[in-house]
Design brief:
heterodimer, A: alpha+beta, 1 helix, 6 strands, 24% helix, B: alpha+beta
């Protein structure tokens, strides 16, 4: 099971998919996750990926097999 | 308007809708300038704040990892050593400005000991703390680029 964590004022919300299941629902969830990540990056967000149990900021292409992604809020001074 | 008065007078207090049952909010698609400091919006009730903070803690703990999270809970801060400036570290504390600390004999590149950095949209304090930790550890250049040096400590304005 893979998931995308979207941090927002609710704390966070999650989009999940399972690449082991070849279903329309899975394909839609993967496409939605990729769209959200690309859009967030274009608008200044960072993205972290869980690698060997640890979240690290990641600039790589979206990988549907990743265990977990997280959208990281853009930051501003003041 | 009715929702505002419900919020103001705490009327119709029902349990908040579980986060999983809501449409996903993508905060970078909205403008938040009109939201008062340290709030999440007029439609947020006390129950929503409580749910958001509980929800945020789960991800913050997972993002930092157990050791770092336990240190924050125990000491109230975590120090992230700079890779750009030898002898300098960033002291991160939940909901507060970054404290820039230097070893004796090391000069800070900033004129003041605190850096004010906020998220561009409202987030629970612990959620943003985890984000700031990742920036300081993995993308220090962004901290250097946006950090606003300040002479005193203060709560952040865009977290709650």
């Amino acid at each position: 099971m893979s998931r995308l964590i979207i941090a927002n004022r609710r704390g966070h919300q999650v989009l999940e998919w399972d690449t082991a299941l070849d279903t329309e629902e899975t394909r839609e969830a993967i496409a939605e996750a990729e769209r959200i990540i690309n859009d967030a990056r274009q608008r200044g967000c960072a993205v972290s990926r869980k690698v060997e149990g640890q979240h690290v900021l990641d600039k790589g292409r979206f990988d549907p097999e990743a265990e977990e992604y997280q959208i990281i809020a853009p930051i501003a001074g003041g | 308007m009715a929702r505002f008065f419900d919020w103001l007078f705490r009327r119709q207090l029902e349990l908040p809708v579980p986060v999983t049952d809501r449409a996903i909010e993508l905060p970078w698609t909205q403008h938040w300038y009109h939201i008062p400091k340290r709030t999440a919006g007029w439609d947020f009730r006390e129950e929503d704040y409580q749910a958001a903070r509980i929800n945020a803690r789960i991800v913050a703990k997972d993002t930092l990892g157990a050791d770092a999270w336990n240190q924050v809970r125990r000491t109230g801060y975590i120090d992230v050593p700079s890779r750009r400036f030898p002898g300098l570290s960033y002291r991160l504390r939940v909901g507060r400005r970054i404290e820039v600390r230097t070893r004796p004999g090391v000069d800070s590149p900033w004129p003041f000991p605190y850096l004010c950095i906020n998220p561009v949209y409202p987030l629970p304090e612990e959620e943003f703390f985890a984000h700031l930790y990742l920036y300081a550890r993995d993308f220090e250049d962004e901290i250097i680029r946006v950090g606003a040096p300040q002479p005193w400590d203060q709560r952040l304005g865009r977290t709650f």
